[in-house]
Amino acid sequence: MTFAFDNSYAALPEHFYARLPATPVKAPKLIKVNRALAHDLKLDADFLESEAGVAILAGNAVPAGSAPLAAAYAGHQFGHFVPQLGDGRAILLGEVIGRDGTRRDIQLKGAGQTPYSRRGDGRAALGPVLREYIVSEAMAALGIPTTRTLAAVLTGEYVLREDGPLPGAVLTRVAASHIRVGTFQFFAARGDTEGVRTLADHVIARHYPEIKDAANPYVALLEGVTARQAKLIAQWLLVGFIHGVMNTDNMAVAGETIDYGPCAFMDAYRPDMKFSSIDQRGRYAYANQPPIALWNLTRFAETLLPLIDRDQEAAVKRASDALNTFGEIFEAAYKTGFARKLGLAPSDAAHALGQDLLGRMAHNAADFTLTFRGLCGAAEGDSETRALFETPGDFDAWEQDWRKQLALEPMRGRKAAMEAVNPAFIPRNHRVEEAIQAAMTGDFRPFETLTAVLAKPYADQPDYAAYMAPPRPEEIVRETFCGT
Ligand code: AMP
Ligand code: MG
To answer: Which of 17, 25, 77, 89 maximizes ligand 1 atoms within 8 Å of its Cβ, making it the mutation to test the pocket?
Structure first.
């Protein structure tokens, strides 16, 4: 038995999805199996790397116990509602229960056309597949809730994109589930309240079992999803992550980061930073992520209104109260996390120091990751952080205030505590690009090295110090693309 499938989504009503297998590809070739993740999922990594395993990962063979399907969903894309999106190039193979007892989806992304493909070819290009592999696994290693990558394979086929034919690939994505805010919107937009209820009950049982006996489970569901998203977005901000395309169909109700497209970690700190080529107005810029998450959650709340109370006015009141918890939960998570980055306990003083530092970093184009990593050593010795600032004196002035606060809060092991929350290694855009470009010529060594380094983001890895460095001017990546 290779996959001990236990499929719950495939048992939901037939109008939730289209049943179909992946479309076979010409010449499957393994790029990589994530052996550590395979172990966590009780999967046989050796088998997955075998010819029969690769055939499954490419969509050329349907494993026993799989009930392959493409899920239906809708969504607001850049604020505009699209009533039918759905898995246009992904096939859910089924669900497995991992060693931790958690149920997870196994999905092939880039697996061919489905009834939801619209004008798309159902395929994925090598570059975006490697980007998702690298960044999703980096997020997991950073301790941020995320979908995972179990494997990547080449298809032996070419896909046509704006810049010409590109090698095709399939990514095996692992997720707590692929249920999105947009999945709820799909049923709500059709006036299918029973569909919304069935989906909500499924999500409660699967992701929020603790609320199933709540007085009003649908209010509790909204509160639960709101809380997880508030904490998730705080974690993104604390490492400088920009999702890039926070459409409602790209927000998972389980609270995981999902759909790595034109995402990026910023180098120099800028609150209005954005990379995505399709986000012209900066709707999904770094500092806009909290309000956009709340906007998306408000769309989610709207789908639940008929379930919350028969009296719609009362339902709106309850939903608003639940949504209003977002700000408080986000602020608490962000302030606590930020204080820890500074080696301090959360307090108004720590918050003020943090905001002051960010302002100075923005003015001085200081590298986000290196500034905080530099503070770890500075807490117990001299600081090289000042050199990251265009005007080092701007840092010195702040440092004096910071040291006063450190003195007020004696702490043992401050450096180690700070290093545990301030990564040395993030998937820098130029390194991701370098790995992709090499892979396009058949050289996967930079990809292998990068994934290995990013598996230990909080450790000093002196041999790989070069991977900490920001890009040289000619290496700077200013724009990232969906590539779909
Ligand atoms: P995304 O921008 O990746 O969140 O995708 C938005 C929608 O477009 C989803 O319904 C996807 O399934 C669909 N889509 C993206 N790329 C393709 C493709 N190459 N072929 C078919 N559908 C696609
Ligand atoms: Mg998407």
So the answer is: 89
Element (H, E) at 165: strand 164-175
Q: Last residue of a domain, which of 153, 181, 209?
A: 181
122 pocket-lining for ligand 1 (C-beta < 6 Å): yes
In a domain, 62, yes or no: yes
* 484 pLDDT above the threshold of 90: no
Atom 14 in ligand 1: residue holding the nearest Cα: 88
Question: Residue 382 belongs to what domain range?
Answer: 344-410
Whether ligand 1 lies within 6 angstroms of the CB of 86 is answered as: yes
pLDDT digits (tens, 9 = 90+) for 165-190: 999 999 999 999 999 999 999 999 99
C-alpha closest to that of 254 among 89, 141, 103, 135:
103
Please answer whether residues 477 and 446 qualify as being in contact, where contact means their C-beta atoms are separated by less than 8 angstroms: no
Looking at the 3D structure of the chain, how many domains does it have? 2
Residue 406 in contact with residue 379, Cβ under 8 Å? yes
Residue 278 to residue 365: CA distance in whole angstroms: 24
Overall pTM surpassing 0.85 (yes/no): yes
Q: What is the mean pLDDT of residues 430-443?
A: 98
Q: Residue 1 — very low, low, confident or very high, per pLDDT cuts 50/70/90?
A: low
**Domain stop point among 410, 439, 454:** 410
Across the chain, what does the average pLDDT equal?
97
Q: Is the CB of 87 under 6 A from ligand 1?
A: yes
